[in-house]
Amino acid sequence: MSTALSTPLRQELLDIFVGRATRRYGLSEINQLQHALQAAAHAEADGAPPATVLASLLHDVGHMIHQLGEDPAARGVDDVHEELGAKWLAERFGPEVSEPVRLHVAAKRYLCTTESDYFGKLAPDSVRSLELQGGLMSADELADFRAHPLHAEAVRLRRYDEEAKDPRASTPDFDHFLRHVEACRR
Ligand SMILES: [Fe+2]
Ligand SMILES: [Fe+2]
After folding, report:
1. What spacing in Å lies between the alpha carbon of 171 and ligand 2's midpoint?
2. For residue 31, which ligand has an atom nearest its CA?
3. Rounded to an integer, what is the distance from CA 93 to the centroid of its chain?
4. What pTM was estimated for this model as a whole?
5. From ligand 1's centre to the CA of 85, what distance in Å?
């Protein structure tokens, strides 16, 4: 573990992602920490900017800070984790981190609407939540989404998210990605 970054924020992130994130990720065979690490590793391998790597690592933090109990989607409840997570992140990081996170559910709806084969790439939990989250986008919703200055980063993040559900993947550890924290703080 690196000691370069020893701040309350670092400890807070470790408490959430390493201390709490061992709950299962939706219906898949991996936990939230593995999902976070895989998303960040895909972002890094793709040459994404540091803020997008960090956003990929932290994109589902809203699942870990809500008070709705385990797997609310199974009970037909949308935890609105993208809004919750983005609000939490916006108190700690700039918009390059928080906004792609806020838009990562909209980006799924966007990709399912604009790419005919995208729906087939969704994991079962993402299919299940799609309707709860609003289903496909209308023409007005597509235009609103495209008007957001960080929508392209949200789409990138979403593609890493979809690929980050491999029970056999190996990744760098959480600490590896924390080196981007200081540069992205607000
Ligand atoms: Fe998510
Ligand atoms: Fe995710």
Report:
1. 16
2. 2
3. 15
4. 0.91
5. 9
Q: Ligand 2 centroid vs 62 CA: distance in angstroms? A: 10
Position 20: which residue type?
R
Q: What is the pLDDT of residues 38-54, one digit of tens each?
A: 999 999 999 999 999 99
Q: Supply φ then ψ for residue 6, to 5 degrees.
A: -125, 75
H/E stretch holding 65 reads: helix 61-65
pLDDT tens digits, 76-132 = 888 899 999 999 999 999 999 999 999 999 999 999 999 999 999 999 889 988 988
**Architecture of the 8-184 domain:** Orthogonal Bundle (1.10)
Confidence tier at 25 by pLDDT (50, 70, 90) = low
Domain boundaries, the chain: 8-184
Which residue has 């959430």 as its token pair? 16
